[in-house]
## 1
Amino acid sequence: MCNELVVQIDQMLERQQQLLSLAEQQVWDAFSEGIEHYRQQMILLIEVDIHPLEETCRREVTARLAHLLTENARLMQHIPVRLAALGSEITALQKSRHSARAYNEISLG
């Protein structure tokens, strides 16, 4: 179980780096698709009980999990930035819609 868990954490770290790269490049569609799978995998990883593992393995897994959480914090810093950008886009769309309505009312009126 130890090796499988280490491999799983390493895969999560790889996926995390891919997502971080997408966020930094602002490739939000691909980021959005990938983050959901990443979230599901994190939930599965959280549910793993490492207490039955032998001490050496438990230390290795704990160190990798700590690294994963540190990198996860870096990844999560990009989400508020994206939410703010989306908020601005929504506001611009609403203003555009209101302007179009006002124009139509004047044109038809």
## 2
Amino acid sequence: NPLGAILSGAMMLRHSFGLEQEAVSIESAAREVLAQGHRTRDLAGKGQSSVSTGEMGAMVTRHIRAAVPMAAN
């Protein structure tokens, strides 16, 4: 369950490091991916299509990057 791992990371950022906005960004991205109907096989309903673990992670990453401006390195 990649979303479980991703959301656990958001909890760590919030509760261990006080990074509230970063946690909110991750949670919002995960909600958006779910709202678009994407599911991994463990969360997909009967007859519902599913995406791989890697695809789910990539979708969440894309949503985070689109919402949060990144500093140039």
## 3
Amino acid sequence: MRLDPKYFNRFIIICGLIGLLAITFFSIRHSFSRISDYEKRLGQADFSGLKFQSFDRPDSLSVEEFRGKPVLVHFWSTWSGLSQDVGAFLELNRDQYPDLVVIAAAVRDDSTLISTYIDEQNFSFHHVEGTEFYQSLLVPGMPSQILLDQAGALARYQVGGDTLALRNMLNDFFTGRDE
């Protein structure tokens, strides 16, 4: 079968549009699938025995040490501007959430860059190596936050660097409002 040359351009445009629609559809579907899978892994995760290698002290840091206080695990990296924005937001708003323990879990980054960044910023967080836990959950984005309640159970989570959404999440948690 031969294609008439006068219809060739239309044919190519239609094929291109169909291809573009297919790529868009499957990209969106994949994104939702990753988030859904992440939610399942979060629901199955055991946070009670969660330990991280600390940058601030020679031994490991356990979430159990903070039982009775809410804990925010903030996955961040020096190469992520949004991570740095969220870190700055959390530090600037420490007074609003005085009971909140922030575990800043560095992900997929050079230890020298991490140490330099920690020294320069001087945030009042517990800085830990978080790559292994981040990868075990297959977190779909950077930065991401996991909020654990006073009993160490999953309360809420957020993927991304939207500080307004993070503020709302924290306010809802501390005022007892459900999501």
